[in-house]
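Appendix B. Extra example for self-study. Work through it before the problem class; the solution is given directly after the inputs so you can check yourself.
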Amino acid sequence: MSSTGAVADERIRKTSRLRTALVRPELGAIVGVIAVFLFFIVFAGDSGMFNPQGVLNWSTVSAQFVIIAVGACMLMIAGEFDLSVGSMIGFAGMSIAIISVTLAWPVWVAILLTFAICISIGALTGTIVVRTGLPSFIVSLAFLFILRGFTIFFPQTIERRTIIGGISDRAAGDWLAPFFGGKVGGPFFAWLGDQGIIAVFERGTRAGQPVVEGIPMLIVWALLLVVMAHIVLTKTKFGNWVFASGGDAQAARYVGVPVARVKILMFMLTAFCACVFATCQVMEFGSAGADRGLLKEFEAIIAVVIGGALLTGGYGSVIGAALGAIIFGVVQQGLFFAGVESSLFRVFLGVILLFAVILNTYIRRIITGER
Amino acid sequence: MSETVHAPLVEMRDIEKHFGPVIALNGVSFDVRPGECHCLLGDNGAGKSTFIKTMSGVHKPTRGTILFEGREMNFDSPRDAMIAGIATVYQDLAMIPLMSVTRNFWMGREPVKRLGPFRFMDFKTANTVTMEEMRKMGINLRSPDQAVGTLSGGERQTVAIARAVYFGAKVLILDEPTSALGVRQTANVLSTIDKVRKAGIAVVFITHNVRHALAVGDRFTVLNRGKTLGTAQRGQITPEELQDLMAGGQEMVALEGSLGGTV
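Solution. Structure tokens for the complete assembly:
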């Protein structure tokens, strides 16, 4: 920030630039991203991971993680958790499928209604947490089961199956569906193909078309959410309230911060993010399954923690969370490119989570001066 | 400073506060004038906390009247009292350690600048004002981004006091600001209290330390078992007399004798 020309106090110990740089929430994640890329460039550099299709592949997977990590990050900084994210993803997808396929309503109605329902559920979770003062861990755990139960119950009862397909046909020609399932920059990639900058298909029905037809809306949503959330968190009054609500709710309330409203809004944001994830997924696959989104809540939380946020709230960074999510995406897909058994991904998750938490605790001590 | 000609800013008359069968305050009268530091002394359980909470709008008195600038007031919440100009600095609830000094200073009252349809927090103004206000209180921050957690307990109290003053407090209630501090930090906080008083703000200084009270106080009121035992002017009372009043007389004399007058 701006220097204000204060007279330096000789008693204040000079802090080294390195130490100042260390005390940033994103540090661990930046180091992690560099390490992960170096690793895969060395071990999977010639596997196609870094050609246009490969990049698109891990970018898309990373973007999925980013979308839910943004919501989880803001909520965690505000001092709460949402364990119902994964169930919410399944629930939202199923809601779109039932409304658009079973009820045969237009897809845009299905999407908007689903967003409204999910955000309301987020608001309900938040209200219960704020009103009862119970840990959000428990309240959202309840919703994890409630939502997953309904996600299986409705398609079972109505359609006698747990996967509903045929959404692609219903979405054809819909005005809202391309905002989630579409791709942008098609002409640009076609031009790149024509110029020979990226490869084109050589035979088959798509001969002459570029191997990458455009950037999926999923990635656009991820970028949009990161930029918006980062600006709101670091540059606005509301962002200050988010930090304050998570840092010390009582102190914040005392100076007039509407802590309850801030927290409920963050639960609604998390639900919104889960819903964006689900809608993009449903539009991509053309179907909704009752088991979608399993364990996503934990992956989101891990990405956020790798990104430097404190589990206790009041400290963290959206950029860090996004980098944490990218680490996930790159490693999950990178192991596939490197030909490593994919179950090792979970081992990696556990190990990196442990390292991240230890590093964060250390950083917290530096900031707060605790010993 | 002791001969203030101003009318009292806050006057509390015969305040009683009952919690069910417990009588926490039983007829307390107290007033504070602009530019004066009025110390409220009392041992643990004397009713100090209940009293300041009544003054700052947390509790409603069971009986008695509160006059603010000569008018009868009924605060519904601490927020009401704050808007009227009564700011309370609690010992532990003042600051959020993980947030920067600037973010803490402006918390709940962030300055905003417009940029097209968007409204951003004006960090440039916020930082400049924070550094300036802290300098006035004698604290040179390394940077306004510095987390409050890196400040000492005394400095945190000072940030809280500076914040209250900057946002237009007319009455500043300090709840045991020195009780957890070391010698040097205590001296710093006391000198801050002195500066604030000289700026014309009415200070209510709650403490159980007679020395700290005598260092900055203009008047002293002792609270014991929910009652005021009288108010003394500066110079009219000795530390020993104050100590006696707080402890309730005779037993303390005996105790002090055995400790060689060091308490």
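Self-check: Chain B has two domains: 10-97+153-259, 99-146. If your reasoning did not lead you there, revisit section 3.
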